[in-house]
Amino acid sequence: MPVTALLLAAAGLSGCEPPPPEHSSDIRFRQAATVRSGQLDEISGIQASRRHDGVLWVHNDDGRPRVHAVGTDGADRGHFDIVDAVNVDWEDMTLIPGAERDLLVLADIGDNDKARSNVWLYLVPEPDPGDDGRFSGEFEWDNWISLRYPDGPRDAESIAWDPVNERLLILSKRDTPPRLYALDADFALAEREAELVFLGEVTSLRPPAMADRRDFGPRTPYVSQPTGLDISPNGQAAALVTYRSLYLFELPVGANWAAGFNARPVEVLGPPRDNEEAVGFKADGSGLWISTEGTGAPLYEFVFPSETP
């Protein structure tokens, strides 16, 4: 059963009325582990490996151009550096699958002041571990590309691979409503510069409410801003996190994600922390991994219900 239908059924929701946001619980969010690497203090992107069982790729949002391997149990599995790359403000990552290799896409797209005329993506072949099961060394990018927006600089913290239309999607953060952009795979894999294509606004996220002031105080105006995005391996579902909520979308039949992100999502309040910036589907699409900023960050597991009441 599709993700959205599963969640609606599991929540006992029916009819045509918009569903209220679901509250976090041990059933929906489980802290599976604590990230044990002391080098990780601002996790802002997460991606499950599809070739290495139990490996999650993560990165900080500044510092060295370094990708860390974390076990689903929170264990430090090593790291690797990207040669001739810089980390101005890495805010998310995704993965472009291939028949013989998968490419990790590191998105240097953060721009709090909307002052960057160009942002960058680094596409790096996913490495293999050493004989000890750990990842190490330096690796060269397969391609890097400089991007500009058609409507001026934007701050963004969300990128995802759309396998249905074979393109990368970037969602802006500080615009109200957020703005969705696309980059075709042909450009991402071969070109050194490109202009993103504007697909439209995303109007489906619930705006801040007075009740949010109890939990977020002065940060309340920002609780609906997208901080992480991922699309399922089959391209039919998407997960988006904000500081307040997890949103789950299902791709409508015959539509693309420009329309999909404006369909009614299921909103789940949480996880319990208020600075989540990384979300990624499990390699088999059966659930999500979510993490947050800070040293010793929690690693949350969100499992989609497998049965309906």
Condensed summary:
With 309 residues, this protein is mainly β. It has one domain: Neuraminidase, CATH 2.120.10.
| Mean pLDDT across all amino acids | 91
Query: Which fold name corresponds to the CATH topology?
Result: Neuraminidase
* Estimated structural class: mainly beta
**Rounded Rg:** 18 Å
Number of helices: 4
Instruction: Report the biggest beta sheet as strand number plus sense, adding barrel if it closes.
Output: 5 strands, mixed
Helix content: under 10%
Low-confidence spans: 9-18
Spatial order of the strands forming the largest sheet: 2-3-4-5-9
Tell me the distance between the termini: 13 Å
Give the SSE order as H and E letters: HEEEEEEEEEEEEEHEEHEEEHEEEE
Q: Roughly what fraction of the amino acids lie in strands?
A: 35-45%
Number of β-strand runs: 22
CATH architecture: 6 Propeller
Please indicate the count of domains.
1
Taken from the alpha-carbon principal axes, the silhouette is: globular
CATH class equals: Mainly Beta
Summarize the structure in words.
By secondary structure, the chain is mostly beta strands. The protein has one domain: Neuraminidase. The protein is 7% helix and 40% strand. Strand 4 (66-71) and strand 5 (76-82) form a beta hairpin.
Strands, helices and their partners?
Blueprint lengths: L2 H8 L18 E6 L8 E6 L6 E6 L5 E6 L4 E7 L7 E7 L6 E6 L10 E7 L12 E2 L3 E6 L7 E7 L4 E6 L6 E6 H6 L2 E3 L1 E5 L11 H4 L11 E4 L5 E5 L3 E6 L6 H4 L5 E4 L6 E6 L5 E6 L5 E6 L6
What labels describe this entry?
about 300 residues, 4 helices, mainly beta, about 40% strand, five-stranded mixed β-sheet, globular, Neuraminidase
